[in-house]
Specification:
The termini are far apart. The chain folds into two domains: 60 residues, no CATH class; 87 residues, Orthogonal Bundle (Arc Repressor Mutant, subunit A), CATH 1.10.10. The protein has eight helices and no strands. The protein is an all-alpha fold. Helix 2 packs across helix 3, helix 4 packs across helix 5 and helix 6 packs antiparallel against helix 7.
C-alpha cells in the first residue's frame, strides 16, 4: 500500500522505493506520536503522502503535478506555468496539514469525507481549510494578473 502510494505520487519506481524506506524509518522514529484515532494503515498512508509531497517540492520535475493540480481543482484561474508556480508557492507556505488536504482533495480527487478521515479532522474543517486556501490562491492570482 505504501509503495503504491509513493509510486503514484512520485511517478518513478526508484524514487518510490527510496520513499518507502524513509516512510518506515519515520514510523520507527515517530511511532510514539501515533494517537490511535484511526487505523495504522491510515496513518501510514498519510505519512507516505506527506513525505512524497515534501520530495516533490524539492524536485525540479514537478511541473506535471502542477498541471494535475490546476486541472483537478477546476482552476480556470490558473492560466500558465507562472500561475501554477504561484499556486504551488502559496501551497508551500501553508501548514503541512493544509497542503495534504488540498493535495488529497484537488489532485487525488478524494471526497471531503475521505480527506477528513485521513487527516483526522471533521469534514467541515477540511472543507473550510481547502476553501480558504483556494480563495486565497484565486485572490493572489488575480492580484498577479493585475500587476504588469
Amino acid at each position: 500500500m505504501v509503495h503504491r502510494r509513493c509510486r503514484a505520487i512520485l511517478g518513478a519506481e526508484e524514487a518510490a522505493l527510496d520513499a518507502v524506506q524513509d516512510v518506515f524509518l519515520r514510523v520507527v522514529e515517530k511511532g510514539h506520536l501515533f494517537r490511535g484515532d484511526s487505523a495504522p494503515s491510515t496513518w501510514l498512508y498519510a505519512t507516505a503522502t506527506l513525505l512524497c509531497l515534501q520530495r516533490l517540492r524539492n524536485r525540479a520535475s514537478h511541473e506535471g503535478k502542477l498541471r494535475l493540480f490546476a486541472a483537478a481543482s477546476g482552476a480556470a484561474y490558473v492560466n500558465g506555468p507562472d500561475d501554477r508556480l504561484l499556486v504551488m508557492r502559496l501551497l508551500d507556505h501553508q501548514p503541512e496539514e493544509v497542503r495534504l488536504m488540498v493535495y488529497l482533495r484537488c489532485v487525488d480527487e478524494m471526497t471531503m469525507d475521505e480527506v477528513a478521515e485521513i487527516v483526522g479532522y471533521s469534514r467541515k474543517t477540511v472543507s473550510q481549510k481547502v476553501s480558504d486556501f483556494l480563495t486565497a490562491a484565486r485572490a493572489q492570482l488575480q492580484m498577479s494578473e493585475a500587476t504588469p
